[in-house]
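Dear H.,

Thanks for agreeing to be a second pair of eyes. The structure we're designing against is below in token form, covering all 387 positions.
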């Protein structure tokens, strides 16, 4: 089954009928932060009604949505009422869709029974350490409720909560999987111990995720793991659990646009061009470097256009209307972007694509970096860039 993560690598519009899992970012509050990960100040969760609309949007577009995973940008167990409402809405409206959850595990013991009653069949627990010294090196802070507690105390609490969560979810009848991010020099040699410990507690399998360094060079504190390190981590995990490596995101501009989305545009086929009335291009991005968000998840768009010397620059940012409003959301966005001839996004549903197209805004599907892609739209080949 293909895994589709909204706002990261969502290709559900291009699934071609293959079963997919939608990962919905419905959790507004984080409970911890890894010190090597950037602080996403602008990450925004989708409300329960908006999450239901996303599922419906994908189904209308022809995607074979087999499962829905609730995960991020915070933790689904931190604001449990929102998670419960989302699960209930999806189960009532789409009873055949499998429901899963990704969490750090804090409060898992408390809510395991309720989540099972709401239809959750499996849980992915984020476990990056089972040793206090390793955990202390990994976490910047852990906040189980609304107050940060001393780190040494917090990491001990976290590991205890995770152990209790596994037991509670298994007792409730849920499958428990483990996801571990490989941080070079910190926990890459610790994967085997994580797998051994989690296997002893009843975990079904382990998923390894390579650490990805922040796009901003000033924030980089670790280099990503190389192939040899990942192979070694896989070998460590496989000694105790069924272990797999989550593949790196691949693809390019316009890759795999499907027939049921109609005329999904790409730069290779009939590229749009700026006009006097519409000289600018809108971009959807979480970090200002790459086109990496589903349009439905964006809270703002970056607007690029030519400066006085003709080179494309970032001109301004504009807000995206709040989710959960149906087609009126996209009508309002189209009016906001009345000076744009195109919008770059990692993925898009049929409704916004059609509405924006009707307003003269071509939707381009890409997961490339912004600078080069915008440059191509304005003629390409320019060596000087303005960001």
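And this is the sequence the design step returned. I haven't edited it by hand at all.
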């Amino acid at each position: 089954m293909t895994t589709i993560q909204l706002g990261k690598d969502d290709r559900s519009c291009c699934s071609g009928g293959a079963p997919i899992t939608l990962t919905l970012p419905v959790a507004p509050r984080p409970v911890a932060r890894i010190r090597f990960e950037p602080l996403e100040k602008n990450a925004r969760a989708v409300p329960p009604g908006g999450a239901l609309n996303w599922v419906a949007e994908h189904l209308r577009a022809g995607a074979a949505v087999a499962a829905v995973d609730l995960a991020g940008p915070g933790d689904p167990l931190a604001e449990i009422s929102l998670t419960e409402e989302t699960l209930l809405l999806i189960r009532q409206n789409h009873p055949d869709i499998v429901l899963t959850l990704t969490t750090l595990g804090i409060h898992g013991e408390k809510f395991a029974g309720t989540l099972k009653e709401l239809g959750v069949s499996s849980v992915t627990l984020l476990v990056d350490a089972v040793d206090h010294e390793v955990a202390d090196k990994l976490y910047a802070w852990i906040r189980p409720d609304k107050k940060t507690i001393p780190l040494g105390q917090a990491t001990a609490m976290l590991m205890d909560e995770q152990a209790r969560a596994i037991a509670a979810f298994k007792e409730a009848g849920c499958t428990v999987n483990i996801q571990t991010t490989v941080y070079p020099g910190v926990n890459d040699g610790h994967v085997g111990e994580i797998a051994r410990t989690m296997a002893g507690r009843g975990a079904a399998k382990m998923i390894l995720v390579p650490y990805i360094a922040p796009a901003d060079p000033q924030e980089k504190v670790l280099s990503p793991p190389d192939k040899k390190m990942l192979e070694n981590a896989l070998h460590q995990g496989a000694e105790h659990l069924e272990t797999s490596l989550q593949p790196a995101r691949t693809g390019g501009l316009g890759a795999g646009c499907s027939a049921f989305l109609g005329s999904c545009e790409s730069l290779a086929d009939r590229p749009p061009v700026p006009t006097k009335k519409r000289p600018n291009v809108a971009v959807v991005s979480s970090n200002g470097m790459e086109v990496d968000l589903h349009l439905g998840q964006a809270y703002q768009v970056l607007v690029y256009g030519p400066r006085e010397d003709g080179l494309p620059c970032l001109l301004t940012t504009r807000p995206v209307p709040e989710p959960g409003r149906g087609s009126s959301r996209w009508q309002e966005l189209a009016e906001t972007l009345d000076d744009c001839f195109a919008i770059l996004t990692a993925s898009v549903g049929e409704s916004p694509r059609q509405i924006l197209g009707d307003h003269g805004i071509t939707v381009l599907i890409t997961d490339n970096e912004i600078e080069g892609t915008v440059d191509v739209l304005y003629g390409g080949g320019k060596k000087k860039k303005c960001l």
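Two observations from my side: Residues 259-377 form a domain with the Nucleotidyltransferase; domain 5 fold (CATH 3.30.420.130). The chain has two domains: 2-245, 259-377.

Warmly,
E.
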